[in-house]
Amino acid sequence: MIYRHPHADGVTARLSTGETVRARYLVGADGAGSTVRKALGIPFTGTTDAAMRMLIGDVAADGLDHVWAHWFAHGSDPMHGVHLSPQPDTDRLFQFHAPLPEGVTDDSLDTLQDILDGFVTGVRLSRPAWSSIWRPNVRLAERFHVGRVFLAGDAAHAHPPTGGQGLNTGVQDAYNLGWKLAGGSPELLDSYESERRATAARVLRISSELLQRLKDKTEDAHERDESTRQLDVTYRTSERRIVPGDRAPDAPVLDADGKETRLFDLYRGPHPTRLTFGLPAPDEPHAYAVLRPGRSSPGPYVIDAAGHAHAAYDASDGTSVVIRPDGYIGARSN
Fold it and tell me: Rounded to the nearest 10 degrees, how much is the dihedral formed by the CA atoms of 80, 138, 27, 234?
């Protein structure tokens, strides 16, 4: 149970242990069944497809090489079968995936074994760590925060695993929110919902489309494009070529000693970075001048030997760009 403090300077939460905790902020990253989201009364809008059921679990599979993933199916229907994927950092466990036959409601080891026996003999399952019947959920929280309480990961959005979008999306939520909590301004914290909810809605659409291809057994069911790589996620609000909200481009440069490095090396770490093109960097942490060959600066600087940095940022002398800790452009001025 969560109690919002009557004042606007913090949150009080009572834990399942009975302990009461007081904090400036609270983040609910507690899964699709989020207690935090339910306590806030935030609707989790969407659908559950009860017609499509999968049996999943972690088990040992005697006789299988743990280095490889294994797919068992009949030649007449190669898209329908059992997938056993090795789980790293376990005692040779595999994750089991298979469609659940009509009328079957049991997720026991015997059920897993019976399904596998329909495709291959001689592979014996044992040592079940867990198992469950999975149904695809496509749901999006109507709000990602109320006051000082925020939602992240599956607590804010649930979608099919098609495309492998879940972990990446949750990690992006956490990084986007983390540095904004450190900043603490209301405007910055409000931007978490506007940026990440739109991204989550896009992921739900993409993963749902990929799931439908699998259900329809289309020829491109297993094809993936750049939309599943999440390198094109943007928070831009302008039509200019390079603007705040864009993912900050990389470019090769030389450091002050003439050694090869990259702009991404300057951005690495939980801090904002400022680039000033053609002018000395201001006296602030992680600020660098980006200079043409033959020039130098009294402060930290890099040399744009081939002009790639100027081109990537559409920059001229006097352009200043702030890169956020999550690798996106936060501000730009000329």
Answer: 90
Place of tokens 């702030």: 322
Q: Are 300 and 256 in contact (CB under 8 A)?
A: yes
Both 143 and 223 in one domain: the answer is yes
Q: Which residues of 114-152 are buried (b: 16+ CB within 10 A; e: fewer)?
A: ebbeeeeeebebeebeebeebebbbbbbebbbbebbbbb
Give 257-296 pLDDT, tens digit per residue: 999 999 999 999 999 999 999 999 999 999 999 999 999 8
To which H or E segment does residue 212 belong?
helix 186-216
The residues pairing with 83 across neighbouring beta strands, listed in sequence order, are 71, 97
User: Which H or E element spans position 322?
Assistant: strand 320-323
DSSP string, 14-35: E-TTS-EEEES-EEE---TT-H
Give yes or no: residues 63 and 127 share one domain. yes
Whether residue 221 is predicted with pLDDT greater than 90 in this model: the reply is no
Structure tokens at 285: 């942490």
Q: In the chain, how many domains are there?
A: 3
Q: Reduced to 3 states, what is the DSSP secondary structure of residue 47?
A: strand
DSSP-based three-state secondary structure for 239: coil
For 252-262, what is each residue's pLDDT tens digit?
Answer: 999 999 999 99
Q: Are strands 149-151 and 26-28 parallel, antiparallel or unpaired?
A: parallel
- C-alpha span between 298 and 302 (Å, rounded): 12
What global pTM score does this model have?
0.81
In angstroms, rounded to a whole number, what is the distance separating the alpha carbons of residues 115 and 64? 17
Domain of 327 in residue numbering reads as 252-333
